[in-house]
Amino acid sequence: MLGRILVVDDEEDIREALEMILALEGYDVRTVDCGAAAIAQAEEEHFDLVITDLKMPGMDGVETLMALKQRHPCLQVIVATGYASSETARRCLSEGAHDYLKKPFDMEELLRLVERAIADGRVPPDGPSAQRC
């Protein structure tokens, strides 16, 4: 297993497509349809990476990102959106997102980002007082 990934998207087709693509690459994938479910799932299971949609009913992707990072500071998160802007990209990255991805996905780019995010999450941060992930 290459890593455990949680996909958060309110669109079932996108969840299913990402689950299939990532599972075929060797990842263990779970999916949920909203931010609140993502937080609950992350409390139940360990994940190396969360890929979350930005625009969702209830908690949006930024709120989901912030809640996940508050509870699991070392968790890697990629925010994906069909409504990309430099402002939302900056906000996501400033809140701790590993990366920001525009929909529709380029699958090769997605897989590169996933691989890099999981690898980066496994490298302990530098410094004697750094928290180990």
UniProtKB/TrEMBL annotation:
Residues 4-118 form the Response regulatory domain. The keyword Transcription applies. Keywords: Phosphoprotein, Transcription, Transcription regulation, Two-component regulatory system. The modification 4-aspartylphosphate is found at residue 53. GO terms for biological process: phosphorelay signal transduction system. PANTHER family: RESPONSE REGULATORY DOMAIN-CONTAINING PROTEIN, STRESS RESPONSE REGULATOR PROTEIN 1. This is Response regulator.
